[in-house]
Every structure is written in C-alpha cells, then in structure tokens.
Write a structure and sequence with these properties.
The chain is an alpha+beta fold. It folds into two domains: 42 residues, no CATH class; 57 residues, lambda repressor-like DNA-binding domains (434 Repressor (Amino-terminal Domain), Orthogonal Bundle), CATH 1.10.260.40. A hairpin with a 2-residue loop joins β1 and β2. α2 crosses α3. The two termini are 16 Å apart.
Length: 107
C-alpha cells in the first residue's frame, strides 16, 4: 500500500530537532519519511495499526477527555509509548483496550 504520509514519494517535509555533540540543533527541510522509512509503501498490517491508533486517540480524547499523560497514568503505560501506539508505530496490545474499558475494534 502506498504510504499515506508521503504519498509514495519516500520523503516528507518537516522540522528536525536534536542534540549532537552536546549542542542543540534544528532545521527544516525534506527528510526520509518516518512512516514508511523511505520505502514509499507500508504493509497492510502497518495500515491497520495506524487505523487502530486513530480509534484509540479518538476514544481517549473525545470520549474519555484524557490527555496522553493522564491516559498513560490510568492505563499503566508511559505516555510516550501511548503516543507511538496512537501514531501506528507500535501495535496496541489487547490488554490496553481492556484497561481502557473498551473492546478491541474489529477492522
């Protein structure tokens, strides 16, 4: 499947912020797409992870009215990991849906 972030171009425009040799740096420009890792495509499994992540984000924010930090505390996970799950970069374990009080969606 064509990457939905870069539309298959393998690159995306964005801001990079980091630390190198003890110094902060930041610049904007074209970079390898972080969704497809520069391949221009994602697997069907990755596409499903992204859809599940969108559903979890909608549930957390619109139904539960929780920030990622608050949801992470309630559900016993780090909010950084929750962010990765919602972005589709990490699979959402079935147990998290149980902790959140929601059935895992059937996609």
């Amino acid at each position: 499947m064509i990457c939905p972030s870069c539309d298959g171009s393998k690159e995306s425009f964005g801001f990079v912020d980091g630390l190198k040799d003890g110094k902060h740096y930041g610049y904007s420009g074209w970079h390898r797409c972080s969704t497809c890792q520069g391949t221009g495509e994602i697997t069907d499994e990755h596409a499903l992870q992204r859809e599940e992540g969108k559903l979890l984000r909608r549930f957390r924010g619109h139904e539960k009215h929780l920030s990622q930090r608050d949801a992470g505390r309630c559900w016993g996970i780090d909010f950084v990991l929750l962010s990765k799950m919602e972005a589709g970069r990490v699979p959402i374990p079935d147990e998290l849906w149980v902790k959140a009080g929601r059935e895992k969606p059937l996609l």
